[in-house]
Amino acid sequence: MGVGDVSKRILLGRKLRSTQLGETLLPKRVALPVFASDALSSVAYAPDEIFIMLSFAGVAAYSWSWKIGLLVALVMLTVVASYRQNVHAYPSGGGDYEVATVNLGQNAGVTVASALLVDYVLTVAVSISSGVQNAAAALTFISGNEALVASVLVLLLAALNLRGVRESGTFFAIPTYGFMLAILGMCAWGFLRLLSGTLPDAESAELRIIEAEGYEGTITTVALVFLLARAFSSGCAALTGVEAISNGVPAFRKPKSRNAATTLLLLGLIAITMMLSVITLANRMSLRYVDPHDFERLILPSGEPVPPGYDQHTVIAQIARGVFDNFSPGFYFVIAMTGIILVLAANTAFNGFPVLGSILAKDGLLPRQLSSRGDRLAYSNGILILALMAIGLIVAFDAEVTKLIQLYIVGVFVSFNLSQLGMIRHWTRHLRTETDPAVRRRMMRSRAINTFGLGMTAVVLVIVLVTKFLAGAWIAILAMGTFFMIMKAIRRHYDNVGVELTIEEDDQVLPTRVHAVVLVSKLHKPTMRALAYAKASRPNVLEAVFVDTDSAATARLLEEWDDRRIDVPLKVLYSPYREIIKPIVDYTRSIRNANPRGVVAVYIPEYVVGRWWEQLLHNQTALRLKGRLLFTPGVMVISVPYQLRSSEVAKQREERLLHQAQAGDVRRGRVLSDQVKDRTSEDR
Amino acid sequence: MGVGDVSKRILLGRKLRSTQLGETLLPKRVALPVFASDALSSVAYAPDEIFIMLSFAGVAAYSWSWKIGLLVALVMLTVVASYRQNVHAYPSGGGDYEVATVNLGQNAGVTVASALLVDYVLTVAVSISSGVQNAAAALTFISGNEALVASVLVLLLAALNLRGVRESGTFFAIPTYGFMLAILGMCAWGFLRLLSGTLPDAESAELRIIEAEGYEGTITTVALVFLLARAFSSGCAALTGVEAISNGVPAFRKPKSRNAATTLLLLGLIAITMMLSVITLANRMSLRYVDPHDFERLILPSGEPVPPGYDQHTVIAQIARGVFDNFSPGFYFVIAMTGIILVLAANTAFNGFPVLGSILAKDGLLPRQLSSRGDRLAYSNGILILALMAIGLIVAFDAEVTKLIQLYIVGVFVSFNLSQLGMIRHWTRHLRTETDPAVRRRMMRSRAINTFGLGMTAVVLVIVLVTKFLAGAWIAILAMGTFFMIMKAIRRHYDNVGVELTIEEDDQVLPTRVHAVVLVSKLHKPTMRALAYAKASRPNVLEAVFVDTDSAATARLLEEWDDRRIDVPLKVLYSPYREIIKPIVDYTRSIRNANPRGVVAVYIPEYVVGRWWEQLLHNQTALRLKGRLLFTPGVMVISVPYQLRSSEVAKQREERLLHQAQAGDVRRGRVLSDQVKDRTSEDR
User: In A350-402, at which residue ranges do the beta strands (DSSP E only) sit?
Assistant: First the structure.
């Protein structure tokens, strides 16, 4: 009889499903808002950054703004076209990390992962800072306290995610569609008023902008090109978040890849429309916008600079106030929706962080326990680390979007580049074996798109690096380097352990005998249970062991032992200094030394209690002892639990935690089981 | 064959002793300094407090100072005489707590324990504050930063004790004998100069003291009595620490009780001599001393008050400066020794806290693990709690001894009173059965002494309560109440658990069968070891269980399982959402449900690593799983450790910690083994 035949393999599980997590697949109309908030929200700050950069050369340079807008739109379309290829080729949801790892090797994959991790932190910092800046237009008390308000918001988001937000399609749909309605509605109304000739000027229209130092008078072509390059790379902030869909393909309805690709295209078109509309309206309304540190360059009609406390509202706020000058609810709706979408965008980072973490953990780049759902401790730590790093950035840069944006785009474009490069390799490899001409033609076309995408994103990355390295991108690169090193070190450790643990010939040798030792501290139910379990295991030798720290207690125990007629010999270890652990460890070691091929089984009766303070009152010695025994070779430690009544409390708490929603569940196509039933009929 | 005969009882231990802790018993000349620092050091602040109180009624009231000193000396002698009885009756070292518990019941014992715990905190706060105040006479930069310097000193002491000070007789002897030499030498030299008529006035002699508000002109008798009572109760600070010897009797050489009693008497006499000498010299040198907040009552010869920044040196510092006006090394020696003895006195609290904690833990009033030596975690927490509470007091009272002393003495006298009351009960009880007339006479005498002691300490307690309650004693009483409640709650919990765990008839029933489950995450050495150990235990059913979170990994494992021809059936649990813990818990539960009288043995292979960050990378899932399985009835959890090479690091660290000295070791008669050999020949 072959050994394989003995193996009984039963695949359990389907029936478990109903009792725990269920899944809903997202139709396009739900998937769009779930994945769009990050990408769309950048319309709230990308135009502002373009105008700020151009303002260096005075208002005249604003005429470049729509050209830069078009260029950003072109890059956006290219990236969208490229990622549509990714979505088809890698529908498993690994995203850029998977593409880079599979096609370019582990180092490229780890680089992408580092870039994405840094990106998550910056998404939180930039989105929240921008949201706070935007809200300042409606809530004046925020002005001057931006960093504080932003930090509190990050903490709030972290708390919400720690608690477990029960996400649903609606959770994302209302704010995202609301934001689209607000911006597109505002722009449409603005264009109508423009056509009818009633579009008012922006509140800042009467201001004059002085050129920044170095840009006075006619500037050199080099200086102009550099300025336009900086404006362009700031505008590229609009591209962040486009890649999100490629991580979420598994959550789409079938045909998954095609639906994801369509949604991606839709997302790109909406984002471009919004951005270009906002830029056009801003120009038509003669909006003036400078870096908040450069207010002395903003001149009032009286010829004096604006006062230092001048409250410069964001581009969207200024447009909304102008367009809706006769309908203030419209203004407040735009401001509110912009604030909400920005917070939601920050929330996507809290969603994506654990998802990426679990993928990295599975590949041994982060602690393994991150890979299993339900390890709340590791998961919570991830959320806390993300929040703390984001708050660090917010405080360090005083919640100024213009400064934070300098760090932002590097990471995104590093992963764009490596992903496109990986895709080219992917198609080339497949072309080598593919013979069907139709498929080959499709692959060639895909490869061409990815090659164009790589060219475009490579140029942008170089521009971003050149224009932003000293302005802050170096910090992002340093952070990426740090993440890279940590992940490589973890992987190296796991690899070393793996080698050390590889099975050798002598690993199948059985121990010759089992010497069981039941630790006794008192004669009570847990001890009796441990004795019973130990006896049921029928070891070669069985004895109870008691550490004598007090001769009166010892005498009492011996007497009771006899009275109860317990048929297990009791060994008393004398410990003159009331140590418990050392005598036991020494004793097990001596048993093992006398019988090097045997194994010592140490049975420890344990109380199971429910409340944290009860935990402090029990088992502490057992815990320490277990820790020590683990270092002794040839010993196995058996915990025999005895559930006290209060343990019910903890059991129920554990159950609750297990069923609690976790951030990112919707993006992974998971919802809790009681939602499944409601949704199944509706969605499928 | 009786069950009792089967029991094999071996008393191990004596041979262990040489490898771990040894003990040295203290001769009187070593015991005196070990236990004296707390009691003797109060001479550094008790006279100051007497003079401060009397100064309210002007310099004229200083004439009462030696009478108050004599009264304090009388109380001291009474207390010493009483405690000599305690030492004979309770040589086990339980001290006041034991006396109160045995004779007056648990509530009295817990009250005494609470009082002692509060006392330890105050000993640290008062001693360090006084030491800093004293040092300010020599190191001027301390003035104005007393609270900061004192807090840093407390932290330093805590750190030293956390690290483990290798204490020895010398550690205590040099500073204590140095302090005696310094104070008694100074006084002797001062009296010689007094006799020869060359004793100079103190630096403050030319100042005039204005009476405090309410004490101007001739004051009423009531006011005077109240003032004297306050001065007296402040002076009673000299009595703190006298009871220390009664906790340390076991550390004395034989005859333990007699040696301890002699040392106690010696200690009392030295303390009284010092205090009275200092008071006398201060009077003879026309020393002026007021509360540092009342400098406006201190008038210069010019008729103006001293400037607000006036640097008032402590009584001992002023005397030393005067007596050694022609020999400045003498002055610095006194200052240095006073500072050192005060720090040493604070250190005794760090010593006494764990000792008392272990006694309370043994009685179930504090977490049990405190009762065994070597639980460094609990022990360290104790030291940290003590340090933080002391720092809290120091900061709250700005390191002002005069304010802190208001809180101090209540606790001491509460325990004095309950202890004396307990002793009276003790003798009365013994007299009931004792028939030997000689012994009866001795007992009657002892009871008379304790009765007198009780009367005396009761009067002092009332005086202290009346004069100090509002001045701060209420804080100490509140703290005592809190400790009392906590300890009672802990005891109640242990009692409830004890009842719940009492063995009933059906507790000796054996499980009918053992179903063993070996958890497999991968096929490597730890898994093989777990399988081997499980097989060696010969369970009724043995199977390996693997959670399928990734079908590729599952397929690989199944293949390897067959290749290696492992003769244990492998069960695969399907987990669509990458959960590990839930499927295993559910599976064990289903086994148990199918066989309610059987037991499930879950074998978990564990890596043992050495560094904390490695610990983070391994076993986290195993740890969580164990936590969950403990809540499942009928399950025992078996850790099968596999020691990785790096585990050696941790093993060595553990060994080092186990051999490290712990605060209070000397007081418990313990020293480390390598000292034992050196000392045995010398001391015995």
Answer: none
